Structure formats: structure tokens, C-alpha cells
């Protein structure tokens, strides 16, 4: 289990056959195409007395991982020596794909991502690893312990689904090994694609998992799952309430008193180290923190579980520059010494109850940080901009006293965070919408007007009449929070996304204006060069619209095709031949 013993040799290369390279989603109709819509591959990591962690198997066997990726997977698939995890434990990690976007198909929005919320789209340059680790006493093994991990590698942040899948598959795999794994992968290769908005039945090992794939059109109050087929499913399906949402109340139990402060740190993209007693607590806390900005996409880096053996250890721990915008989950206290210069460190212990309420970590100054035997606490000099919502804490405490189920408490907490984020974002959305040119300024034969620039001072002035106070009862320094937000990666990510959507809307409105105009009257006094220029521009817009990059109606597309044909027909035969080669 420990990464110190036998770690000198580093992880062993995969013993599974690695054939022709394969990365990213495979083309429809090719082997493993449906499987790759859900998973990249399945890995088995074992502990070898001589080699340390070793990659025993990769399936499908032709999936290509670099040596650096294999090394990261091996180290991150086992708890380190400080965790003392006996029995079965589940956790997750996230690693950077070596060489960035290896598969061109992952640049931009993938077909499967259309309609998916921004926070649940496929990761273009990172892999998620979902781990089921078993350590049990075994006298037949030299070290006296059986230690093995089953790992699902995916680009989808569907932690709840993949943990449920591992819960079904891993215990069976540890008993029956490879043949069981091959059968499961073949079953996944029959699953329908994870299309946003659909409710799917996913058969695996005699069980049917029923899941809803979230869509941008979903409301926070979406009702219970409705079966997608007309048939009655036998056996009765196991209904997962969510593919990605964790039990937020359970994850945040030790920090409920500081949820708003932590929300601010996440909103501002502040560097945060989470030191936890196990990879399970570490990864759940990091994933809970990064999810509390929804529906905003979390634009910073985050590592649910990270070790000193990671290839990016030096990059994250350097003192020659400011700490990176990353949320780092660790279990090794060595990181407290290495990252003393980080502005925010959250140390959580094993979950404990204090009377009716979970024992809360205390806010402490960074100077109180001891490199050894650091007590649980949130070590930060940061002062929250917004006042704490005492009504939320009272409500959660009342829920505990009444023994409300954890999922009800989670719903209260999630709704609070959602309303907080929406209250913060709505004024930004309103101001951004005001920068859009008026529709009457969009005329057919002229370049469409530009979106006006975002002026921070103008926005801050607009808060007096349309600020968050209209939708949120919380008092505090909202202006100061916005000023800091403007410097964060999340403002940059939000602004780029909105600007791109507005530019596409402008192009769509311009295309509609052209298609509503009379092209024959326009062409009467135009040169051949001008007509050819229009044809090329219309074709380019048509290609983008057909690729769902422009929000255009089908009737407009038909009219655009007709206009292109009309314009080409008005040109001399030699030009027609160039524009429409046989």
C-alpha cells in the first residue's frame, strides 16, 4: 500500500498488450466506439514487492497511454502510507493528459457535449480516474496483504455513476479477475451514448442502472427519472438520482460554518490545499468544493487526490512564482511544509459529531500552521466579503435534530449555493446583454455591428439599480467581491463563453436578415467579385450552422442554400465551374 516501500523502481510498464495507438472517442462503427463514449479504458494496478505499484492490465488493450500517464495512474490508484486504508475504499483523481489535446476530435465542443451544462462537458486535456482499492490480509502473498486497484479512466466528470459502476464490478473482479472485466467492457460497449437530456437504462452484470444525463435545459427542480423506453424493465432498475452530484452535506459536514467563505475562495479561483485523512475524504471534499459554483463552470485546475510522486509536483510546489490557481487534495502531511506559502490550507480530520452538530473546523491564521501535527482548521488570512448566512446554519441544525435524511440536507445546501451563485451572476448577465447591438442595426448587406466592450466601472455603477441585493438577502461588500472576481480565471472563462455565444447569435441574426432580403435586387448592380464574396460568406455560415455552432432555424438554412444556388446561377459558366466543381 505505501508508496515509499518499493517505490524507487517506479511503476512498471503495463503487462497488458498495447497495440495500435488509440486515443479519444473512436469513430462510430469502429471497435469500442460505444465504450469510448463513456470510458477511455479500464486499468488494473497491483502492488509488486520489487517494482512498487505496477500497471497489470489496460483494457481495451490497444488504448495508448504515455509512460508519464501510466506512472501517474499507478501512484494515484493507491492510498499513500499515511492513509492506512484497510478493506475496500473508493476515491477519484484527475490527471493532465500528456501533450495536451492528443485527439483533434476533442478540440472545441464534441457532438456528445451539445446541450450539456458547461460544468459537465468532456474534459479535452484531462483524464478522470475513478478508483476502487482493496487491501486485505492474505497469507499467500509475501507482504501478507492483497493490494489491488480497479480504475476507470474517463473524460466525463460522472463521479456518482462511475462509483456505482465500480461498486458492482470491482468486488466481482477481485474474485474472478480478467474474464469478468472483459465481459463488463463488452456490456458497456452496448450502452447508448450519454446524450444530454436523455434517461438511459445501462445493463451491467445482471443489474440495470437507470440514469438521467443532465442537459442545459434541465431546471434545478427536475422531477424523478422517467424511463426512456416503453418496456417494463426486469429486473427492476437501480435508479441513480444523479450521475455527478455528491452528498454535499456529508462532504461539507466539518466546514458547514465556513461554506460561504469557501464559496468565495472557489469563485475567486484562489489556491487551496485540502489535507485529509484519506484519498476518499480528500477527493470528495475537492469535488464538492469545485461543484459549489454550478451553474458556473469551474475554470481552474483541481486535483481530487495528489501525491509527491506526481509529475506536476515541482510545478505546483515551486516558490519562485505565486501559487497556481489550483485546488489540491492530499493526504501526506509533508505538503503542509512544502506549501506553507499557499494562502489557504484546509485541514480536515476523520468525520466527528459534536452533540447534534458535526464538529466544525476553526478559522485560524496561517501563522498558527505547524508543519507537524497540524490540527484541523481552515488556515487563511482571507476575510469574507459577504456576511455569513446564519439562517442556513440554523436550518441545517434543525434538520439534524429532526433526523432529516442527508439527501434533504444536501438539497437545502445545494439550493443555497445555487441561489448565491445566481444572485452573483445575474447582474453580470444583464449587463452583458446590454452590450449586444440592437437588432434594427443588423442590415443584410453590411458587416454586422460589434458587441460593445465590457467596461468594469460601468458594470459596477449599474449595481445600484440592478445588483445582487434584488435577489439575495445577504449583506456585505458585493462591489469588493466583483472587483476581485474580475481578476479571476472564472471571470475570464465566463466572459469568453458569453462573448462567443453572443457573437454566434449576431452571425445568426445577420444570416436571417440576408435570407429575408431580396437577393436578385441586390445582385443587379454588383460586380462578379462581390457576388462571389457573398457566396463564400454564405457557404461558410452554412457550414457553421450545420455544425450547430450557429442558432439558426432550418427554414433559414434552406433559404440560404437557395440564395447560394441563385447567386451561382447568375455568374458566367467558367466561374460556376470553379465554385461548383463536378
Written account of the structure:
The structure is a single chain. The termini are far apart. The strands form 4 sheets. Strands 10-11-9-12-16-15 form a 6-stranded mixed sheet, with helices on one face. A 5-stranded antiparallel sheet has the order 2-1-5-4-3, with helices on both faces. Strands 6-7-8 form a 3-stranded mixed sheet. It has helices at about 65-75, 160-175, 180-190, 250, 260-265, 280-290, 315, 335-340, 390-400, 405-435, 455-465, 480-485, 490-515, 520-525, 530-545, 555-570, 575-580; strands at about 40-50, 50-60, 85-95, 125-135, 145-155, 200-205, 205-210, 240, 270-275, 300-305, 325-330, 345, 355, 355-360, 360-365, 375-380. It is an alpha/beta fold. Belongs to the DENND6 family. This is Protein DENND6B isoform X4.
Q: Could you provide a short overview of the structure?
A:
The longest helix has 29 residues, at 406-434.
Average pLDDT metric: 84
Helix content: 25-40%
Distance linking N and C termini: 66 Å
Number of strands: 16
Instruction: Name the overall outline.
Output: globular
Number of helices: 17
Strands side by side in the biggest sheet: 10-11-9-12-16-15
Query: Main sheet?
Result: 6 strands, mixed
Strand content: 15-25%
Low-confidence parts lasting 5 or more residues at pLDDT below 50? 1-23, 100-109, 227-231
Report the radius of gyration as a whole number of Å: 27 Å
Kindly name the structural category.
Answer: alpha/beta
Keywords: Guanine-nucleotide releasing factor
Domain UDENN: 40-496
Pfam families: DENN
Biased composition (Low complexity): 10-21
Amino acid at each position: 500500500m505505501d508508496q515509499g516501500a518499493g517505490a524507487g523502481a517506479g511503476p512498471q510498464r503495463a503487462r497488458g498488450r498495447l497495440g495500435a495507438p488509440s486515443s479519444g472517442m473512436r469513430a462510430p462503427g469502429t471497435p469500442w466506439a460505444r465504450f469510448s463514449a463513456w470510458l477511455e479504458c479500464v486499468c488494473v494496478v497491483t502492488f509488486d514487492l520489487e517494482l512498487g505499484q505496477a500497471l497489470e492490465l489496460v483494457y481495451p488493450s490497444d488504448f495508448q497511454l504515455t509512460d508519464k500517464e501510466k506512472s501517474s495512474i499507478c501512484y494515484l490508484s493507491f492510498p499513500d502510507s499515511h492513509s492506512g486504508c484497510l478493506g475496500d475504499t473508493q476515491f477519484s483523481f484527475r490527471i493532465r493528459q500528456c501533450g495536451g489535446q492528443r485527439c483533434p476530435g476533442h478540440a472545441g465542443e464534441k457532438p456528445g457535449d451539445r446541450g450539456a451544462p458547461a460544468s459537465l462537458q468532456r474534459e479535452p486535456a484531462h483524464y478522470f480516474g475513478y478508483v476502487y482499492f482493496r487491501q486485505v490480509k492474505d497469507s499467500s502473498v509475501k507482504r501478507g496483504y492483497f493490494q489491488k486497484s480497479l480504475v476507470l479512466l474517463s473524460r466525463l466528470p460522472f463521479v456518482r455513476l462511475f462509483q456505482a459502476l465500480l461498486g458492482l464490478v470491482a468486488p466481482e473482479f477481485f474474485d474472478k479477475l480478467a474474464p469478468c472485466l472483459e465481459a463488463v467492457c463488452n456490456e458497456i460497449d452496448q450502452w447508448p451514448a450519454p446524450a444530454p437530456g436523455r434517461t438511459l437504462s445501462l445493463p451491467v452484470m445482471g443489474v440495470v442502472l437507470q440514469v438521467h444525463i443532465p442537459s442545459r435545459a434541465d431546471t434545478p427542480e427536475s422531477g424523478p427519472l422517467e424511463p426512456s423506453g416503453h418496456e417494463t424493465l426486469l429486473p427492476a432498475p437501480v435508479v441513480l438520482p444523479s450521475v455527478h452530484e455528491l452528498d454535499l452535506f456529508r462532504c461539507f459536514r466539518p466546514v458547514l460554518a465556513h461554506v460561504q467563505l469557501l464559496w468565495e475562495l472557489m469563485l475567486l479561483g484562489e489556491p487551496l490545499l485540502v489535507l485529509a485523512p484519506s484519498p476518499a475524504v480528500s477527493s470528495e471534499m475537492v469535488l464538492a468544493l469545485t461543484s459549489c459554483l454550478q451553474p458556473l463552470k469551474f475554470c481552474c485546475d483541481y486535483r481530487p487526490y495528489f501525491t509527491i510522486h506526481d509529475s506536476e509536483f515541482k510545478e505546483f510546489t515551486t516558490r519562485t512564482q505565486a501559487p497556481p490557481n489550483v485546488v489540491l487534495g492530499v493526504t501526506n502531511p509533508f505538503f503542509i511544509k512544502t506549501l506553507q506559502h499557499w494562502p489557504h490550507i484546509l485541514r480536515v480530520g476523520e468525520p466527528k459529531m459534536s452533540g447534534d452538530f458535526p464538529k466544525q473546523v476553526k478559522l485560524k491564521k496561517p501563522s498558527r500552521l505547524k508543519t507537524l501535527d497540524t490540527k484541523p482548521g481552515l488556515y487563511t488570512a482571507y476575510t469574507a466579503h459577504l456576511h455569513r448566512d446564519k439562517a442556513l446554519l440554523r436550518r441545517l441544525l434543525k434538520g439534524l435534530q429532526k433526523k432529516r435524511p442527508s439527501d434533504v440536507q444536501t438539497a437545502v445546501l445545494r439550493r443555497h449555493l445555487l441561489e448565491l451563485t445566481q444572485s452573483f451572476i445575474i447582474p453580470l448577465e444583464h449587463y452583458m446583454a446590454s452590450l449586444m447591438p440592437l437588432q434594427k442595426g443588423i442590415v443584410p448587406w453590411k458587416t454586422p455591428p460589434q458587441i460593445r466592450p465590457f467596461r468594469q466601472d460601468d458594470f459596477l455603477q449599474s449595481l445600484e439599480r440592478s445588483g445582487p441585493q434584488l435577489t439575495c438577502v445577504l449583506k456585505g461588500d458585493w462591489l469588493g467581491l466583483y472587483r476581485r472576481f474580475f481578476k479571476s480565471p472564472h471571470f475570464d472563462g465566463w466572459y469568453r463563453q458569453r462573448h462567443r455565444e453572443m457573437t454566434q447569435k449576431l452571425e445568426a441574426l445577420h444570416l436571417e436578415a440576408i435570407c429575408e432580403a431580396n437577393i436578385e435586387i441586390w445582385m443587379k448592380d454588383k460586380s462578379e467579385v462581390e457576388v462571389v464574396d457573398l457566396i463564400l460568406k454564405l457557404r461558410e455560415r452554412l457550414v457553421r450552422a450545420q455544425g450547430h455552432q450557429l442558432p439558426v432555424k432550418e427554414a433559414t438554412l434552406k433559404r440560404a442554400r437557395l440564395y447560394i444556388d441563385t447567386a451561382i446561377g447568375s455568374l458566367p459558366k467558367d466561374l460556376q465551374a470553379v465554385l461548383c466543381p463536378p
